Amino acid sequence: MHPTGITNYEVNRLKYRWFAENRRRSEREIDEDFSSLLADPHLVGLDFMAKDPKILLLQTPIIDILHKGKYYRVGQYVIMISRRFTNRSWRVDFRFKNLYPLIYPGHNRDLVHHPHITNCVDDEEFGENVGYFCTEARGFLEKPLKDGRIFDVYPLFLEILTVYPTGMPFHEVTYWPMVGTIEENSHDTRHQSAR
Known about the structure:
Blueprint: H1 8-19, H2 27-39, E1 45-49, E2 52-67, E3 70-86, E4 89-98, E5 102-103, E6 111-114, E7 117-119, E8 121-123, E9 127-130, H3 138-146, H4 150-162, E10 178-181
Antiparallel strand pairs: 1-2, 2-3, 3-4, 3-10, 5-6, 6-7, 8-9
């Protein structure tokens, strides 16, 4: 409970309303978006960066990628989304932090996040050991982020993190630990869309 007597849920709801503000959306719509996002079974946590509340933090479940009949455990992520109004338009940016980064073989102990995410770098806005997408995904994610529709974008982030298109990775998925095969996990639903 917050020192003022309001719940953490209420504090985060108000922060989210401020974060996702949009003149074309009512507070009720933004509140519904927030409630729906919290109800998403694939969202582990939601918070705001302490040093900058205009950065939303979304924690994913553990991500396994299916590649050639084998599951590879690539990590668990915090998706960091920055959304700021500057010069009459919204500027959005996002980074990823793997809670369990991999030391990539043969690359001077570089920490890496994911096959589609750059090596860990330090970023002035987002902090230490973060990475960004190395795919064309940025373009179709920006519009809903600019509109403050985080609930619409979160499943897209998850889909990108769980898919491994051959020939496009920044890092080979086979460097991550294999945790099973498709036969062993025939009843597994972890790779189904969040909606």
